[in-house]
Specification:
- This protein is of the alpha+beta class.
- It has one domain (26-118).
- Helix content is 34%, strand content 20%.
- A five-stranded antiparallel β-sheet has the order 1-5-4-3-2.
- It starts with 25 loop residues before the first helix and ends with a strand.
- Pfam families: DUF2116.
- InterPro entries: DUF2116_treble_clef.
């Protein structure tokens, strides 16, 4: 009975050694696993970049020493703000819903206006 030769999952070279071995060496194992995780890692990296950019845009809108400011949807979008990315929501007792990007939030007002606020540190 002839044993079938196993091949490395990354490079395809013949594997020698243990019967349950999947890779020819550590470099192939690492390369294979990095490729497997690349799609999810890149997605997370892109979302985190968008969240940080949104936060920085909100921070720039509020003048130094102030806690809040108003701006338009047009300005937010022109600066590259992406409304679909936020870290959490906060609902007030009145039912207003603030969308936060880390410690800066915004509330949609009437007529494409937004109230931008700096959150209180907890």
């Amino acid at each position: 009975m002839a044993l079938e030769k196993k091949h490395c999952l990354n490079c395809g070279n013949a594997i020698q050694g243990r019967i349950d071995k999947k890779f020819c060496d550590d470099q192939c194992r690492n390369s294979f696993n990095n490729q497997q995780n690349a799609l999810s890692t890149n997605y997370i990296r892109r979302v985190n970049h968008s969240l940080k950019k949104n936060r920085n845009i909100l921070e720039e809108i509020i003048p130094p020493g102030e806690e809040m400011a108003k701006t338009t949807r047009e300005r937010l979008l022109r600066d590259g703000f992406q409304l679909k990315y936020f870290t959490h929501l906060y609902e007030t007792k009145k039912g207003n819903i603030y969308h936060y990007c880390y410690d800066y939030g915004y509330l949609a007002l009437e007529g494409d206006w937004f109230l931008v606020v700096k959150g209180k540190e907890v």
